[in-house]
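Pinned message: reference record for GTP-binding protein
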Amino acid sequence: MPRPGLHVLNGPTDEFLGRERLMSYIQDQTSADFPDMSAEVSNSQFHTGRLPNGAKNRNRPKLMLMGQRRSGKSSISGVVFQKMPPSETLYLETTTRPEESSAHSFMDFQIAELPGHVNYFTPDFNQANIFAEIGAIIWVIDAQDQYLDALNQLIDTITYLAQTWPAINVEVFVHKVDGLSEEYKNDTFRDIRQRILDELSDLGYDNAPVSFYQTSIYDHSVFESISKVIQKLLPQLPTLESLLNSLCSTCRIQKAYLFDIITKIYIASDTSPQDTNSYEICSDFIDVVVDIGELYGWSRPQQGEKTEFNNHACESMVTMEKKGQNYLYLREMNRYLALVCIMGDDNPMEKKVLIDYNVGVFQEALAKVFGW
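Predicted structure (C-alpha cells):
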C-alpha cells in the first residue's frame, strides 16, 4: 500500500504525478539541460544562458536595447521593467548617452540602452566593454518611420557580432505597430524581415541568430516578445517545458505559464500551441491578483512556520471561474514566480484537490531545478 501522500503512476489514466518519478527525472537530467556554466560558447547558434567570454554576471541576464533615435527603446524599458504607464512614455527625453538599469525580480535583469546617433564600431570605442557581457541585443525599429537606414545599421551590427560574439542573440522588434492597419502592419513586418534575411544571405550569414517580433507598449505584445527573448537566456528552459508538459497532460490543463510576477514576463510555458489570447488572459489575471494582494495581503510566515491548516500553499492559490467556460488557476511557486493555468473544458472544479496535489509536486520539482 503506498505511503500517505505518495501516489505512484500505474497507467496513462492516472491523475497524480508520481513524486518519486518526477524527482528522479530532475536528478537524472543530462548536461544538455543543465549546461556547464564554465564551458566555452563559441559555435552555438542560439544563446544557452551562458554569457559570452565567461562573463562575471552570468546569473544576471543582460539585455541591450539598440536602434535609431525615437524608435521606442526607452519606452520599452520603462513599461516592461520599471512598470511605467504607457501614456507617460510620451514625456521621456531622448537617450543621449549609454544608460544601464536593473530589474530586481526572479532573475535580476540588467538592461543597457545605447543612443542611436553613435557608431560604436569605430576605433574610438572599446567594443569588448560594450558587448562582452551581453546575452541578447534588442534592436528596435519604428514601423511608422522610414526604416532603410535602421536596417543598414542593424545588418552592420549583426555581421560584426557574428564574427566577434556569435553567441549573442539579435532580437528585432518591429515597434509601434499599434498605429498601423492590420494589413499595412503585416506588410511592413514582412518587408523588414525579408530585407534583413536577404541581405544576410548575400553576405554569407544564413544562420545568424536573428528573430523578429511585432511589438507595441499599448498591448501585451511587448511583454510576450520580451518573454521569448529571456527564455533563450535561461539554461533550465528544456527542463521547465518538460515539467509543464507533464503537469498539463496529467491534469488536462489547456495551457500553463510560469510567470515572473513583478515583470509579467513568462519564463516558460508548455509546448502546446498557443492562441493569441492565452497570454493576455493570464497576464490580466496576475494584475487582478496583485491588486487584491495589495489590499488584503498578509505577512508571510518564516520558513518552518505553519499555518493553522499546516499548509503554506493553501493560502497562496487563486481560481477564477465563469460558468460554462474554462477557469483560471493561479498558485504562487515562491515570492517571485507564479504558475498560471487555463484549465480545459473537461476539467471541472470538483477535481481541484487532485490539481492542487499535482501542482505541489511540480513546485517541489521546481525547487530542485533552481536549488531553492
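Pinned by admin. Summary line: The domain at 19-34+236-370 is CATH 3.30.450.190 (Beta-Lactamase).
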